[in-house]
Structures are given as C-alpha cells and as structure tokens.
C-alpha cells in the first residue's frame, strides 16, 4: 500500500539514465535535450516523493543520476532560475525528512516490506552528500561552493536538530572531499568565505554534540581550503603579510588542538581572522549576528556573542563596511532576547565606536535609527562602554553632529538635530561617559540651549527625514523636538551635579521660560545667573567658550549665546576680557536691527556698569542709549534708564542736559514703571547740575513744573510721591519756596481754595 504503482518504472528510468550518462557521446544537442527535458522529469519525480516518509529509493536514484551527469560536465542544478529551484527542491526533500527515530516508528506502523527504512535513509543521504561533493570537485573555480552554501545556509541554521545535523554533515563531508581533491584554478569565484566560516563556527558551539563534532571536523577541512585559497588569491605585494598570517595560525594551532573547535567556537575566530579580508570579516559579523536571533538555543546565542567580540577585538582596524555591520546590529536588536547575547552585540558597537577610524561611521549609522522611531537604540546609547581616553572623542563627535545643525537657517529641522539630542539624553541617563560629560559641559550646555531655541513651536512633522532613516515605530503625540531638547538639558544638569541650577529653574519656572518664543532668552539668563552663583568655575568656562560662538551660526544660535554671555558679565572675570569682546560687541548689538539683540546689549552694559564700573568705555554709547528711550519695548526703555543712572556721575553738562530733555519726554508715557523711573532720574539729574550751568538748563526745568504738578494727583501713589519729590528739587533749583498746599494729598476738586493758592504761586513766579 505504501509503494506507488509507478515506483518500478521510475527506478528503471533513473537507473537507465545513469547508465546512459556514462556511455553517451555528449555534444551540444545532447546537453540541450537533457537540460530541457530531463531536468523537468527529475523535478517532477522528486516533487512526487512524500516529505514525511521514505519508502522507496527514488530520491537516492535521482541524486545518483544527477551525480553521474555532473561527472560528464552536465550540471542540472545551476545556470538558470529553474535549475536553482530544482536544487532547492532536492535539498528540501532530504533535509526535511523526519528524524531516523521517527522514520523507524513509521516503518513499524506502516511497514513497506521491501526496504529497511534506516538503511534506505542512510544510502539516500549518502547519495545526496556525494552529489554535493561531485559538484565542488568538478568546479576548480569554487563557483558551485558559493551556490551550495546559499541553498544550505537556511538548513544550517534550522531550529530542528535533525535538519541542522543533516545540513552540517553534508557540508562537512563536502568540505572534506574538496580538501582532499583540491585543484583550484583562478579566477576563483567563491565570495562567501566569511559567511561560511561564521556558520561553521556557530555550529561548533551547537547544543547537539553530533552537530558540534561534525562542524569542528568540517572547519578543519575549511582551514586547509582557506590556506590554499589565500595562497592563490593573495597579491604578490602582500606575500609577507600572508606568511605572517600563516605563522600566527601555525603557532595558535600548536597551542590549541583543532579538535577543540567544537567546544570553543570563538577560537575559530582567532585562527581564521588573520586570513579573512575586510569584506569577509564583515560577512562573518553579519552571519554571526543572525546566530544571536536563535531563540531555541541560548548556547548558540552565547557562542555567537563570543564570536562577535573575539573577532572584532582581533581584527580591530581591518573592517571596511562598518556601517553595514552597525546596521545589521540595529535591525537585529529587537529579536535578540538573551541578555548576555544582547549585551555582547551592544559591546561590538562600543568596540567600533571607540576606534577613531570608525567613530563617525558608527555615529552616522546610529543616527539613521533615531531613538524617537527606534526605542531599542536607547539601550545601546545608555550602555556604551568604552575606554576613558575614547569617551571625550566620542561625545565630542556626537556633539559636533548637533552643532552643525545650528549653523544655517532651515525651513525644517534636520532629523540629525533631534536624533543627536535624544542620543545625548540617553548617554547622560546611562552615565557611562561621565568624565567626558563633565569635560565637555560648557559645549554640551550651550548646544542644547540653542537646540531648545530652534525647537520652539515645532512638531515631529516639521523634521526633514531623508530616505533610509528608520521611522517604523510610532512617536507619541507628546513627543516634540522641544521636549527632547528640554529633557536632555535637565539630565545634563543632574548628571553634572548642577542641582542648585536645576532647582532654581524649577522654582522660578525657568523651563517654561525656555520653552516660550518670547521668553526663551529670559530662561537662558536665569540659568546662566544660577550657574554663576553656584558653580562659577563652570560659568567661567562657558564664558570663554562663548567668545567665538557669538558670531557663528544662525540668528537663534547667536541670540542664545549672547543671552548667556551678557549674564556672565556679572562675574569678576569679565574684567579680564579685552574690550573688543565686550564693549565693541555690545555697541554692535546696540545698533542691530533685531530688537532682541538691542535688549541684550543694554542688559550687558547694565551688568558691566553695576559690577565693574566700565564707565569711561561706555560713555561713548550714551547718544545711542538715549535714543533707546524712544523704543516701544518696555524692557529696552527701563534698561536704558538704569544705565543712564549709573553713568550720571561721569556725564558732562552737555550730556546731562540732553539726558534731562530725553527723560522729560517720558513724563507723558502711560506705562507706570517707565514714568516713575524717568521722573526719578530726572530729579537726580537736576541735582548733578553745577552752579555755573544752572542758567542753561533753567528753561527745561520750568517746562517740567506743570507736568510734575499735575502728576501730584496721579492714581499711582508711587508716581504721585515721586512727582512731589522731584517738583521740590526743581523749585529748590529755581530757589522757589513751594506753598504747603502743594503737599496736600486731598483731591483738588475737594479743596478749591488750596489749588487756588498753588496756581497763584506759579503765576506770580
């Protein structure tokens, strides 16, 4: 019942085909017929064989027929897509058979009678192995070896033990045969040596002992093939390096027996590394990474991790396509579940990024996986583990990626700015680069504050994302470029022990100020002031850093830098700065078309005057400062008034007179603060007039009397009191004695006689 009716006919046909293959005279017509018709027949025959059982030698005879034809240089398994498909079907028909134990059980349940299943299986499998061996022996250019590996690779990594064992045995026997009958001729077409070495190395650590032992034996043969391969392909100019590689290999093998490969797969990496080209090293890494995805066998993941780290440490600077390796790690991270294996994959990134040769390559590729869209990268950034000398270099290069985004104005934000900001945040959280974070604190702080400024009002849709950037994971609605920049700034302060500054920003709503379009610079000033109060050494480092930054980048870059800069003028260290960095720059900003620069200029001047008495240098700016009194921005006017007060003692009469006139023009200003300070400074200015100059300013004082008198009844008590004080000063200047009714605070309409006395006084005077 288990024997199909046509089995005898099939077997007769296949055996006849084998006989014919050895006796036919081959020409173009014969080969064409075979390729066109025989291939289809074989494909049909093998497709008819059940995958779950083995009851006839049809498979065996198909393998034998193909082998016999191969010996006549008629290859039915490559050269076209159909032949490649036939090869896949043949492999699957033998590899996916149930295990021998299961086949024996099937024979017990469904006896076939004619054949012993176990014996038939072994004969069939051996025929399959001999078919593969014939394919590589007949090909001195090793092109078929690459094709066989391509078809066998999925089975070498199969989750089913018996499938993996069959694939390993067949590969090992094939490599053994090739090793014994090696007859290589250029040009050699085998381009997957790194891939094959990695597969065999992983199998040497297989949990199934038979698989590991077969793989170790196959690796022994592969080493022999590799040595011969490199002797043929090695450039004569590199002959010396090949000799050194062989010497190193020989020394290692004398210390460590090849038989130990199956229990110590990482030693394969040490032996083969010296022979692998940069491209083959990359193949080894990527193939080994696939071993980390093996969820069924943790020991395979462990072997893969050891292989990765060993090879990267050994080959160190010989890799070329590092970006492909980093990309492979990023793609595979989500499916590497075992903690140790995951950590080893991450450590490979640390090894590469710590080499200056690869730092930028690694950073660029990691930033192609922005954390907002690939949260698995958070762990990578947080666990970066590099030697202390490399930490500053790595953090500096990452920082530069962010800084370059601030140089020119762009309609949309470059994705690198967001990716680098978030990467910095994760680095700060992980705290692995702590020393470098302290060392680069000034640069990091300013770059992040500038990024905050650029991010105000933007959403994730305002980011330019080029093709190739990983964006598969959704970003939460609360995530914005601004939120990333703020969290990075906060974490930087906490990681560098700037707790006082962080607390000051929290208590005074400094973060809200930083996030506001109109208040960002106030937030920057608040943070700068707090830093100067508690960590003056850090503040001074920032001060020196800012000098070259003030003229760089776009306007937001310069504004944020300027806001921090002028706040630090309160430091005694600001005295040491050459005037070209302080006075000259402040004067330039005072004429700037952007109002915010004018505000910062006046604030800087005010800070210099309050703390360092730079009056002589600033006196030349008084005309521009006076013109600032006509500005509509209340901040500018108030700062200008305060600066004039500080300069009052150093003014000559002409300047003083001009100041008095400018202040008088503010008496009609409806803004209480401006009005109050203008009246106050007006009175103090009058006091500074010397006797010899009194006559020249008398007219201005007389003009001010009525406005002052009227403001005695102002609704704002402070304005009324100040007007009264200044009116008294003016009358004393004129040597007038005011009637006491002037000082009566009752409303004039309720005291008509009193106002009559006041009016009569001013008329008579």
Automatic annotation (TrEMBL):
<dbReference type="GO" id="GO:0005737">
    <property type="term" value="C:cytoplasm"/>
</dbReference>
<dbReference type="InterPro" id="IPR011989">
    <property type="entry name" value="ARM-like"/>
</dbReference>
<feature type="domain" description="Maestro-like HEAT-repeats">
    <location>
        <begin position="162"/>
        <end position="395"/>
    </location>
</feature>
<dbReference type="Pfam" id="PF23227">
    <property type="entry name" value="HEAT_MROH2B_C"/>
</dbReference>
<protein>
    <submittedName>
        <fullName>Maestro heat like repeat family member 8</fullName>
    </submittedName>
</protein>
<dbReference type="InterPro" id="IPR048465">
    <property type="entry name" value="Maestro-like_HEAT"/>
</dbReference>
<keyword id="KW-0677">Repeat</keyword>
<dbReference type="InterPro" id="IPR016024">
    <property type="entry name" value="ARM-type_fold"/>
</dbReference>
<dbReference type="Pfam" id="PF21047">
    <property type="entry name" value="HEAT_Maestro"/>
</dbReference>
<dbReference type="InterPro" id="IPR045206">
    <property type="entry name" value="Maestro_heat-like_prot"/>
</dbReference>
<feature type="domain" description="Maestro/Maestro-like HEAT-repeats">
    <location>
        <begin position="583"/>
        <end position="763"/>
    </location>
</feature>
<dbReference type="InterPro" id="IPR055406">
    <property type="entry name" value="HEAT_Maestro"/>
</dbReference>
């Amino acid at each position: 019942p288990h024997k199909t009716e046509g089995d005898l006919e099939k077997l007769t046909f296949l055996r006849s085909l084998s006989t014919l293959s050895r006796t036919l005279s081959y020409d173009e017509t014969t080969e064409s017929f075979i390729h066109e018709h025989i291939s289809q027949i074989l494909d049909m025959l093998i497709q008819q064989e059940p995958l779950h059982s083995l009851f006839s030698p049809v498979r065996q005879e198909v393998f034998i027929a193909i082998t016999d034809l191969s010996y006549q240089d008629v290859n039915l398994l490559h050269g076209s897509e159909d032949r490649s498909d036939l090869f896949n079907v043949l492999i699957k028909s033998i590899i996916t058979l149930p295990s021998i134990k299961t086949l024996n059980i099937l024979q017990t349940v469904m006896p076939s009678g004619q054949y012993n299943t176990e014996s038939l299986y072994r004969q069939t499998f051996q025929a399959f192995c001999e078919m593969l061996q014939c394919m590589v022996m007949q090909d001195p250019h090793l092109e078929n070896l690459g094709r066989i590996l391509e078809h066998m690779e999925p089975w070498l990594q199969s989750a089913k033990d018996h499938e993996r064992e069959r694939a390993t045995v067949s590969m090992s026997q094939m490599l053994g045969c090739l090793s014994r009958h090696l007859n290589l001729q250029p040009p050699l077409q085998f381009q997957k040596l790194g891939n094959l070495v990695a597969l065999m190395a992983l199998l040497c650590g297989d949990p199934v002992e038979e698989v590991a032992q077969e793989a170790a034996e196959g690796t022994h043969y592969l080493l022999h093939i590799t040595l011969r391969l490199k002797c043929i392909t090695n450039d004569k100019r590199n002959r010396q390096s090949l000799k050194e590689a062989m010497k190193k290999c020989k020394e290692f093998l004398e210390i460590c027996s090849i038989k130990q490969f199956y229990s110590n797969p990482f030693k394969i990496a040490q032996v083969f590394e010296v022979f692998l080209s940069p491209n083959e090293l990359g193949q080894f890494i990527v193939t080994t990474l696939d071993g980390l995805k093996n969820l069924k066998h943790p020991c395979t993941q462990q072997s893969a991790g050891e292989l990765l780290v060993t090879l990267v440490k050994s080959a160190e600077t010989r890799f070329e396509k590092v970006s492909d390796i980093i990309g492979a790690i990023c793609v595979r991270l989500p499916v590497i579940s075992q903690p140790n294996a995951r950590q080893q994959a991450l450590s490979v990134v640390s090894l590469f990024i710590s080499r200056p040769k690869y730092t930028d390559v690694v950073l660029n590729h990691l930033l192609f996986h922005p954390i907002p869209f690939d949260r698995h990268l958070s762990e990578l950034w947080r666990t970066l583990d590099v030697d202390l000398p490399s930490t500053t270099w790595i953090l500096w290069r990452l920082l530069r990626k962010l800084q370059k985004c601030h140089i020119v104005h762009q309609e949309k934000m470059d994705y690198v700015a967001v990716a680098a900001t978030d990467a910095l945040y994760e680095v700060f959280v992980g705290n692995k680069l702590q020393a470098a974070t302290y060392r680069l604190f000034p640069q990091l702080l300013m770059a992040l504050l500038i990024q905050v400024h650029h991010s105000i009002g933007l959403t994730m849709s305002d980011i330019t994302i080029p093709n190739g950037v990983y964006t598969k994971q959704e970003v939460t609605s609360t995530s914005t470029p601004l939120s990333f920049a703020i969290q990075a700034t906060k974490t930087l302060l906490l990681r560098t022990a700037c707790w006082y500054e962080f607390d000051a920003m929290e208590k005074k709503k400094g973060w809200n100020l930083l996030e506001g379009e109109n208040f960002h610079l106030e937030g920057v000033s608040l943070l700068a002031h707090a830093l100067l109060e508690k960590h003056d050494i850090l503040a001074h480092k920032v001060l020196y850093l800012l000098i070259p930054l003030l003229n760089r980048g776009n306007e937001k870059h310069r504004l944020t830098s300027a806001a921090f800069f002028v706040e630090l003028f309160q430091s005694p260290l600001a005295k040491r700065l050459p005037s070209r960095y302080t006075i000259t720059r402040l004067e330039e900003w005072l004429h700037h078309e952007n109002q915010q620069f004018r505000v910062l200029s006046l604030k800087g001047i005010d800070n210099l005057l309050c703390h360092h008495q730079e009056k002589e240098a600033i006196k030349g700016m008084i005309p521009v400062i006076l013109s600032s009194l006509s500005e509509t921005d209340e901040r500018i006017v108030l700062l200008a008034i305060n600066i004039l007060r500080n300069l009052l003692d150093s003014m000559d009469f002409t300047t003083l007179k001009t100041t008095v006139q400018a202040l008088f023009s503010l008496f009609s200003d409806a803004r209480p603060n401006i009005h109050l300070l203008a009246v106050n400074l007006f009175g103090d200015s009058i006091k500074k007039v010397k006797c010899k100059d009194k006559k020249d300013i008398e007219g201005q004082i007389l003009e001010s009397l009525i406005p002052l008198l009227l403001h005695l009844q102002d609704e704002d008590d402070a304005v009324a009191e100040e007007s009264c004080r200044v009116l008294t000063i003016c009358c004393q200047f004129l040597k007038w004695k005011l009637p006491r009714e002037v000082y009566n605070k009752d409303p004039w309409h309720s005291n008509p006689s009193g106002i009559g006395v006041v009016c009569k006084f001013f008329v008579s005077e």
